[in-house]
Amino acid sequence: MDRIVLDRLVEKDQEVTIEGPLLEALLFHGARLGSIITLTDPRGADFRGRVFRLSKREASIRIFENFPSPTESPLEMILLQALPEKERMELILQKATELGVSAIIPFKSERSISLAEREAKQKKSHRWQEIAVKATQQSRRARVPRVEAYRSFEEALRYCEGEGLKIVLWEKEGQPLREALRGLHPQRIYGMIGPEGGLTELEIEMAKAAGFIPVKLGQRILRTETAAITLTAILQYELGDLG
Fold it and tell me: What are phi and psi of 60, to 5 degrees?
């Protein structure tokens, strides 16, 4: 659903017709008549195409550009974000999507605002996946990152029980990120960002017990949205496809 992988080889200037699950994936990408979409063929090559016919049963796309290299990073990055106030979550969703994250997990920490508190001020959480879709279109990505359901801190830790490097930003006693990455080449990274004011020492201990390594990004204190964007960019530069 998050990626449109064709069942046939395609070339530039070709027209393709899709239906069934591929059509569902196309609609999940926010496609409308005239939309430009990134598609992938069975070889893993990415193409750009314009939707020139769309109905409830099928769609036709005209391929007009092929990419010399994949649009998706080889690094699978899962961003765990303590829910911030106001428009900061939307900024994080936009920029993290542009930078190539695979999934975003909003969670409640002791010092973060709750979803109920935020919704009481302004109902916007229903737009999160839509924002990721639009950022995918803007950045010409082939895959829409998943915006998972808001959850507790404990549930966020349980989400990360799979294989992969796990790091949590902690400005107090974390080791430099450069040191934590030295000699490592993980294919999957879980990166946890706390709220304004940071995670509590108890939360850090819980994260460490779940396999997370506390790290820091220098001596300056970054806003939560700056930290999320900076961490994602650094990891994509060091281990992904930036640069």
Answer: -120, 135
Q: What is the per-residue pLDDT across 214-237, written as a single tens digit (0 to 9) for each?
A: 999 988 889 999 999 999 999 999
Task: Assign 171 a pLDDT band (cuts: 50, 70, 90).
Answer: confident
All domains of the chain, ordered by start, with CATH?
15-66 (2.40.240.20), 76-239 (3.40.1280.10)
Q: For strand 188-193 and strand 76-82, is the pairing parallel, antiparallel, or unpaired?
A: parallel
Question: Using CA atoms, how far apart are residues 89 and 93, in angstroms rounded to an integer?
Answer: 6
Write the CA distances from 169 to 98, 119, 198, 241, integer angstroms.
21, 26, 9, 22
| Whether the Cβ atoms of residue 237 and residue 183 lie closer than 8 Å to each other | no
Give 102-117 pLDDT, tens digit per residue. Answer: 999 999 999 887 887 7
Residue 220 has a pLDDT of 87
3-class state of residue 130 by DSSP: helix
Query: How buried is 200 (Cβ within 10 angstroms: 0-12 exposed, 13-18 middle, 19+ buried)?
Result: middle
Query: Where does 8-152 have alpha helices with state H?
Result: 21-28, 88-99, 115-121, 128-139
How many residues are there in the chain?
A: 243
For residues 55 and 76, what is the distance between their CA atoms, to the nearest angstrom?
A: 34
Q: Are 146 and 171 in contact (CB under 8 A)?
A: no
Cβ-Cβ contacts under 8 Å for 29 (sequence gap 6 or more) = 4, 37, 133, 136, 137, 144
- Segment 161-174 shows an average pLDDT of 92
